Amino acid sequence: xxxxxTGATGNVxxxxxxRLIDRGDRPCVFVRDxxxxxxxxxxxxxxxxxDLADISSALSGIRExxxxxxxxxxxxxxRAAALAAKAAGVRHLVKLSTLDVSTGVGTGPWHARGxxxxxESGVRFTFIRSSAFMSNALSWAHxxxxxxxxxxxxxxxxxxxxxxxxxxxxxxxxxxxRAHDGEALVITGPQALSYGEMASRIGAAIGKTIRFEQxxxxxxxxxxxRAYADALVDIWRAIREGRxxxxxxxxxxxxxxxxxxxxxxxxxxxxxxxxxxxxRGKRGRSARPPPSLTRPK
Length: 297
Ligand SMILES: NC(=O)c1ccc[n+]([C@@H]2O[C@H](COP(=O)([O-])OP(=O)(O)OC[C@H]3O[C@@H](n4cnc5c(N)ncnc54)[C@H](OP(=O)(O)O)[C@@H]3O)[C@@H](O)[C@H]2O)c1
Hints:
- There is one protein chain.
- By secondary structure, the protein is an alpha/beta fold.
- It has one domain: 3-Layer(aba) Sandwich (Rossmann fold).
- It contains 13 helices and eleven strands.
- The strands form three sheets. A seven-stranded parallel sheet has the order 3-2-1-4-5-6-9, sandwiched between helices. The chain has a two-stranded parallel sheet with strand order 7-11. The protein has a two-stranded antiparallel ribbon with strand order 8-10.
- α1 links the parallel β1 and β2 (28-31).
- The protein is globular, with a radius of gyration of 19 Å.
- The two termini are 30 Å apart.
- NADP nicotinamide-adenine-dinucleotide phosphate (NAP) binds next to α1, β5 and α13.
- Residues 7-13, 32-33, 36, 51-52, 68-70, 96, 98, 107, 130, 132-133, 136, 290-292 line the site of NADP nicotinamide-adenine-dinucleotide phosphate.
């Protein structure tokens, strides 16, 4: 197979790419910045350069696509990619989506429209409906390092964050077998935790007490792109109201093993929460703030 990985310089896409390399494949990565891709993967990938607005020029010889699109208008890019894939004879498209397609919260409606566009195109698909990523917690590093505190508007509400490595493993299974064609895989971490509980677990990983402080939606609201800030506030409110505490056995169903725990993720990324130093996670990525929480998508 030749697989094209979009979002290959990002959180999940880079792990998908690395796993394909580890299997002995030489995947194609679709990137805007070839140097970034070369720095990450050396010559173990074929680099195709372009913008997600139009991937049609990158599809020669491609049988599978890992598709990652973001933002309120992601439907436009999902549809264009699906139609281009169909025309180029691509066999299968695996879309990173969100569990919130079913709750209608946050970015759920954006991805629901994207999924609909893929279904309409007639291309064979798998949707990965993931819960929120454990790596989102890297955005807490600043106040944890500086003040030993995590502030959110989520109250005692719980959510089952998932390790990005689990998402990548599920994606690679969907890309490299036909076992999940036509399915929407709803995957979460193993346990729903409150933000206070996650703060304690990070504290345990770094040997420090981390306090949790409840703040208002207004105070929590990020200071960037309005649609994305609205989506985040919507998610945090839904968590507070106990509407996003879903735990599924999706990872186990697909991979035959339990998903990685938040404690494990906190241990791997402890360096990001200490006053100095960084750590390299056992799953092959150094800790860095998730772009998804540092700039609008
Ligand atoms: N964070 C969560 O909790 C969560 C939960 C469920 C679903 N999701 C979904 O997961 C996806 C985000 O995944 P992620 O965190 O792995 O992404 P990420 O780390 O933010 O990376 C985004 C990737 O897309 C690339 N990219 C962005 N715009 C592009 C463009 N116009 N043309 C070409 N490449 C472009 C970026 O390339 P550059 O390196 O050039 O910027 C980067 O490789 C979104 O669809 C989001 O809705 C997120």
